[in-house]
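Quick note —
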Amino acid sequence: MTSPAETSHSRVLFVDDEPDLLAAMVRNLRKWPYRISTAVRGPEALDLLRSSERFAVIVSDLRMPEMDGVALLGHACEIAPDTVRILFTGTPDLDHAVAAINKGSIFRFITKPCPTTLMALTLNAAIEQHRLITAERVLLEDTLRGSIQALLDILAVASPMAFGRARLIRQSVGMLAASLGVKDPWQVEVAAMLSQIGSVILPAATLERVYQGQALSEPERAMVKRMPGVVAQVLGNIPRLEPVLAILDYQEKGFDGSGRPADDRMGEAIPWGARALKVALDIDLLERQGLPVTLAFDTLRGRKGRYDPEILETLARIRHSAPQSQVGELPLPRLRAGMILAQDVRAETGVLVVARGQELTPGLLAKLENYFRPNSVIRVITSEMAP
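Predicted structure written out below.
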């Protein structure tokens, strides 16, 4: 059950077009430990949900001008899905009740007049429901975050080359999502970081050729084709990754419907994250082959129908308008956490130690100290923009 301390910190929003009723509700509940806010219009309530500290509960009248309770709770479900929704009406209507339940996913349907004690008990139950919802979400998010981080830690150790590329791809799709106002950008950013997980099955020499965009033998192409299956197998049992898996499934699909998987999806029917990931991956590959950024984008434009034009031009605009990176060559003792590698760092044997694009961390600095002498010079970026 919800403790009094937890209840006292819970915010409740009452919405009704009758100010006197709202004032009476606040007055009658003043002995109960809630923090109550009120709104007399639906749009006003939605503004509060968007801008204020999170509400545990919203209680809305059914019949209001401009926006009724069904519409309000439906919008509230989208804006603040964790906020528990209660419909409060003086004119019970079965059709409206069903609509509210279906559209707004309401928790309770109560009628006016409602005794103060009954309202308080209903609010307590709703606050407890909110606590359970948020606790489950936090648990799932922590589990998801921990699982992803564990995979990335393994990738960073097993294949610094792939890990470095994944970080650059994540930066590109993150900028795209921010520029285009994409909802839930974490999905495409996680997909970008996990897009290289399948590379762990590739021999080092093959991975090097993939990384540099070089020609592959037939057996090597067969290994690369098996990578998506490995990714699906590794990620398939992690909860809440379904949207990420959908992005990864369609990352090779052309905007015109060409490519894998061989289905009839095309255009905007392909997940946005997959369309963004395809542009980011292909532009990165061309740059790794030595093409200047302008020529790389012109090359993609020449592949008619392959890319979402809005995403392609947005990324081109972002890259062309980005400030020039400050690249410097520093001896090992002057490197600091937060700097970004401007080039691959290789041991004398040619083995890749850390890939370009990775942000230096205390762990990576220690790794470099183990591989190189103090007078070794490393090229790094000191500004926020990666190469």
